[in-house]
Design brief:
By secondary structure, the protein is α/β, with parallel strands linked by helices. The chain has ten helices and ten strands. The structure holds adenosine-5'-triphosphate.
């Protein structure tokens, strides 16, 4: 059976026994993670965990530390403190290529597709050196998930619409056959109807059992789809909890602004 489908089916059957994310093992966990850019502190002592089969939202305004937290997970930013564990192992300080090999993939903010490469070439790059033997199979699996890309295989990435580029960016991340997909603001800059399509796609991945971390400023949409959420402000977690509860309390807006909340969700 093809790798992504194998993965998704395996997760899918596992997911049903996970009782929609209230139990189950932690797939990735951050403990006291702190990161700087020079003298600027971007992430402050963040504790966060994601269980297998969950969608967890990381919410926050511009500069809140969402991207830096995702980068900390995939080894794209050096930590000044703390640890990142994945599947029970310490992956702190590993180079990004080793982390991708272990099954974590990041779709960066801004649909960073290669504009001068075709859709097919973008997807080939996504498979990485280690994935070249499995590339033809993976391509078919990914095209089954993103049928719109099949007609665009020979079109340059830069000529695709915004929505197609976002799908290509996510599809390219899936080419490395990840267990855990990190999506950095996938709805940013897209027309509302395209945002809906992107969220439908995320729901499809979720329904097939992928574990996802979704960094978003679109709070309402993110809380609709996520199981749990962490709200960041100036690099720290202001609020965390079950999405349904967070939607009911209305505390997210205050946490977003760094105003604190009276009691945790
Ligand atoms: P956005 O939605 O704007 O991407 P974010 O929540 O993802 O925001 P980060 O990009 O993680 O936030 O930024 C956290 C902090 O780190 C901010 O103060 C930001 O200005 C700073 N920062 C981010 N990238 C860099 C960089 N390359 N060099 C210096 N400072 C940076």
């Amino acid at each position: 059976m093809p790798p992504i489908l194998t993965q998704l089916r395996r997760c899918s059957s596992r997911r049903s026994s996970v009782a929609r994310n209230t139990a189950g093992d932690s797939l990735v966990s951050l403990h006291a993670v702190t990161a700087h850019y020079g003298s600027t502190i971007a992430v402050r002592a963040v504790d966060l965990e994601v269980k297998e089969g969950e969608i967890v939202a990381i919410l926050g305004a511009n500069g809140a530390g969402k991207t830096s937290t995702l980068k900390a997970i995939v080894g794209m930013i050096d930590l000044s403190g703390g640890t990142v564990r994945y599947e029970g192992r310490d992956i702190t300080g590993l180079p990004p290529e080793r982390i991708v090999e272990r099954g974590i993939s990041l779709t960066p903010e801004g649909r960073e597709v290669f504009g001068s490469l075709t859709t097919r070439e973008n997807l080939r790059v996504g498979a990485g050196i280690a994935g070249q033997r499995a590339y033809p199979e993976r391509l078919e699996e990914v095209l089954a998930l993103f049928p719109v890309l099949r007609d665009k295989l020979d079109v340059f990435g830069g000529l695709l619409s915004g929505g197609e580029q976002q799908q290509l960016a996510i599809a390219r991340s899936l080419m490395s056959d990840p267990n855990l997909l990190l999506l950095d603001e996938p709805s940013l800059g897209l027309a509302p109807i395209i945002v809906e399509r992107v969220f439908e796609l995320i729901a499809r991945l979720r329904d097939r059992g992928m574990t996802l971390i979704l960094a978003e400023q679109n709070v309402d949409r993110a809380l609709q789809i996520a199981d749990r959420a962490y709200v960041f402000s100036t690099g720290r977690i202001e609020l965390e909890g079950d999405s349904t509860r967070l939607r009911e309390t209305g505390d997210v807006e205050r946490a977003f602004l760094g105003l604190g909340v009276e009691d945790g969700a």
